[in-house]
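Q: Here's a chain of 257 amino acids. Please give me its 3D structure as tokens.
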Amino acid sequence: MWDTTSAESDPRYLSSVERGFRVLDALSLSSGPMSLTELADHTKLAVPTLQRLTATLIEAGYVEKIAGTKRYCPTVRTVDLLYSYLSRNQFAKRAWPHLVKLREELGLDVSLSVPLSHSMIYVHRLPGFRGNFENTLPGRKVPMHLSASGRCVLSSISAADLTTYFENAPMQAITAWSLTEPAALKDEILHCRNQGYALVKQEASPSMVTLGCPVTKASEAIAGVSVHIPLAGFKEETFLEKVLPAAVSVSQAISQG
């Protein structure tokens, strides 16, 4: 959820714009089209307000109402925002050839994700095997504490900031294997801090194992390089022996300072 507490005192702040983006954010997190009642539950906005916001977003071309229903979803125009970001972001451009090389070397699915509020969002996702379609798309968000790269980012922050994170981040499970207890998650994050990488098994995607290595800037983890492999036939020792050195090398190459 958007935190607007400090922004609302700014005389330049437009609450209507923030509310519109709140609707788009809710639609982006949903697995399918949403009704006004569902949007109200997610955005904490009144249905009459949402009627005006969705009408405006439809007119602007960013939202559409599914024919014959009372449900809403983003339009293809939102893809243009992703293209605009990826084509202009120097960090994303610099990381790309390193990720391509890693994918070619390992023959596995590799990705780059960055923090966004309490989530990690995939900036690049290069499929190396025939996997789930949705899991190969950039723009997907995963709770930071359930993401291998996210645990790398969390392992670099202070104990006070980590406590604040767990006080505010939603702790819902994504799969049957998702850790949701802060004490257990803190142990995993500490383990990541000590060993320099995180290994997550089925917590964000069923039947998938993910290795994450931190990308740093001045000792702060600002992103993560991940390698993904199906659980079937997975052998941890062999996987780490093959994948970890290459993933560490790429994450260090992308890091700054």
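Q: Can you summarize the key feature?
A: Residues 137 and 156 are 27 Å apart (CA to CA).
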